[in-house]
Write a structure and sequence with these properties.
Heat Shock Protein 90, 6-stranded mixed beta sheet, 2 domains, 344 residues, 9 helices
Length: 344
């Protein structure tokens, strides 16, 4: 053919429609031409001389192959549509679960600052009722309490913005905070918390120049959930200690009846910030420890807990590519250790 060979025509036809059936006819058969034709997807290959019946047989085979291909393509299209429908349904269900979890997390995490705000308001009310007159000292104290309330309101807004950003698919810019500042914020949050006043809480000052690679709101939520859980582990007065340090790596841990380890999703060798929240409360039984991170699992009586605190901690630590180790034995208390990548 002038300007284009039969093999080139076959190649162009397959570019236009990969499923078209092509029968190659030639008067000059070579092994190379036959090989190229089959490689490019020719249905059949005939060389002269050929008969009318032979042509009919080849065309019938091509039509049969075309019919089978069309049927397969139809099944494949319906399968993809079904897979897409299943995926969309799964995504909708997952989104609904995520929305419910995020809304519940907002309410759970805001409960801490709201409890502190109530404590400040009780102090202000007490100062106003008990004071014979509002002297400068009383005014200064009340102003400090009002500033504390304002700080906790801002913290509530930060929590809600953070979670709603997840819900709307918005990623906030990285906003880490030094561990010393995180501990200071935790101490301020818990100063007016009733559980902190009923127990002995010791927050060890964090070493300087240590910053975990995690959003400031998330690290505070982790510390707050773990510390309040420790403070509420027993109705009897007990001691809770919070401390942090820098380590070269995450040590080896084993899962057993008295300890549970949730490793990093993406293991790294960089230095890690180690956070420890320890109490000398009643400790957990092996059965309770095995279910500790399950959403909505709680050992508290009805109406006093919703089992979200540790599941929130797990989610935030996992998102930051961190790890969690828990050791607990009945009669000895519980130690939560959080490992977070260090910001270098």
């Amino acid at each position: 053919m002038p300007g284009m060979t039969g093999i080139q025509v076959l190649s162009r036809l397959k570019e236009i429609d990969p499923y078209v059936e092509v029968v190659m006819l030639t008067a000059h058969e070579t092994l190379e031409t036959a090989r190229d034709a089959l490689r490019l997807g020719a249905c059949d290959y005939l060389s002269k001389p050929y008969t009318i019946q032979g042509m009919r047989d080849v065309v019938n085979r091509a039509l049969s192959r075309r019919a089978v291909t069309t049927e397969i393509r139809g099944h494949d299209r319906r399968l993809r549509e079904l897979q897409r429908e299943i995926h969309d349904r799964q995504m909708r269900e997952e989104l609904a679960r995520s929305q419910a979890e995020i809304y519940a997390s907002i309410l759970h995490d805001i409960n801490g600052p709201l409890t502190v705000i109530r404590g400040f308001l009780d102090k202000v009310r007490h100062d106003l009722v008990s004071a014979q007159r509002i002297d400068p000292t009383a005014v200064t104290t009340i102003r400090q309490h009002v500033n504390g309330i304002d700080h906790q309101v801002i913290h509530c807004l930060d929590i809600s913005r953070r979670y709603l950003g997840f819900l709307e698919g918005r990623t906030q810019p990285d906003a880490p905070v030094a561990l010393s500042q995180g501990f200071a914020d935790l101490k301020e949050l818990l100063e007016m918390h009733p559980n902190a006043r009923l127990n002995q809480l010791h927050i060890e000052p964090a070493p300087p120049n240590i910053t975990p690679a995690i959003h400031a709101t998330d690290i505070l939520s982790i510390l707050l959930n773990l510390t309040i859980n420790a403070l509420q582990s027993s109705p009897d007065p007990h001691r809770v200690e919070v401390n942090g340090k820098l380590a070269a790596r995450i040590p080896d841990h084993q899962n057993s009846a008295h300890e549970q380890f949730l490793p990093q999703p993406q293991p790294e060798r960089q230095p890690v910030v180690v956070l420890t929240v320890q109490d000398n409360g009643p400790g957990m039984s092996p059965e309770v420890l095995s279910m500790a991170f399950q959403p909505n699992f709680t050992t508290k009586e009805a109406g006093r807990g919703f089992g979200l605190g540790l599941s929130i901690v797990k989610r935030l630590v996992t998102q930051a590519n961190g790890a969690i180790h828990v050791y607990s034995r009945q009669g000895e208390g519980t130690i939560f250790t959080i490992y977070l990548p260090a910001r270098m």
